[in-house]
Amino acid sequence: MRGAYPTVSSRRMRAHQQEDANRPERTTGGGTSTVRRALVYLPPALLTVVALQQMVLSRTADLVPWKGGGFGMFSSVDSERSRIIRAFVIAEGREYPVASSIDELGRAVPKAAAYPTRARLERLAERMAELPWWLDPETRAASPDRGTGKPRRRIRPTAIRLQIFRIVFDSASRGAERLLLAEVTREVP
Amino acid sequence: MTSQASGSVAMARVPPLERLRGEALRFWRLPNSLFEDERRFELIGVMTLLVSIFHLVSIPELNEVVFVFAIAGVLDRRLLRWPAFWFALSAGLIVNHFLLWHTLDNHKYLLTYWCLALGISRLQADSLGAAALNGRLLIGLCFLFAAASKLLSPEYMDGTFFHYTLLTDRRFSGVSDIVGGVTTEAMVANGVAMRDLARPYGAVEHVALNDGPRIAAMAQVMTWWTVVIEGLIALLFLLPRRLRVGALRDAVLLIFMFTTYPVATVVGFGRVLTVAGLAQTENRLGIERALYLAAFVLLPAYRFPFARVFRWFIG
Fold it and tell me: How many domains does chain B have?
């Protein structure tokens, strides 16, 4: 009765395995052009270029190691979620912290935190300077939102200051703290 | 007695074990029929589209476009044979990378390269061979850069990264609790401390985290295990095919997936790896394709809080 049931190493499966094993490394047929053959290597080439660029930028320009296609995830405490951005509106000779998440600037803020180049931070500060700023008299915090509750006073910034921090951890003392990565103060003309 | 009747009598005489074996083999043939050459590209294509649908992070408008596109490909498999279909999908994903590079995880990049590779492979005379070559190289390079990033990072190599992660990352809380000895209360307190530290204008400049008795040793083991297995995968996948390390290559990648993702559940990454793994495998032992397919299906099960259930069970 044994023959009535299929066996694991059926002839068909063996044939497939043989076919796979015999498949040549070369991936093209006879009439294919050289360009088409070379195209096969485009995705690995792109991966290599992007990853090398990310590795260089994360070591030289504080690009967060987890992002940017360099496969640096799970290699550093410094992830995009642990980056901290501090912004101050300088007006009337005083410095007021920005209290809200500044939704008006969209993705510019998290991008500046993830890759805080001087040019990027200055552009962000310029865009912030263009917003209308209101001062909460109670918290002494500046916000681009006029608010609906207590009356807020309009302030005109003379400069915007931005600071980007990362988290560092000391394994021996189990202590975590902030480390300043970049700082920019942009005067408002 | 008719031949049908004699057949039934013969079946009735089959020992139960033999019958069970026959049923198991019939069941085994089911997924294997999907691996035949013509259907395999379709299977790989559909799996890729499912990853795009379930694991895409993008701006809302693009999300909808990719969703519709991917559903169309799943429903009409002829689309999977058009290079233009894959190039259009890749173009959408590339636009997404430019817009959201600061939030996209690395496996989203891998998925984009993979979609591009599938389009290019359809331009080749041997599409499956081209997809296999890309699967092998993309996995190898991804792990090469992952291992290199770790080797070049002092805070990784001295165990600091895993020490910090085991004390603060909720994805690791189960293993930190059961193996490392960090209580749930300590983990929650660490989370609160880190949130205080991360407040932009908060007065807290430094926090000391609660530790566990075995966390430092665990961090060392995880540090070395990860970098060794990632380096090994990179080496095996980048070695030329003539060295015939196909079976070993699949074994190490599958070990990586079955040991890493229960702890650090990154289902999207795991699934991209299973699709590329399935495409490149030489199936030397005859079970690798089925294992990759099973891993693809079962990966979300790792999200089940096994550690919490285990902790509850042992009190």
Answer: 1
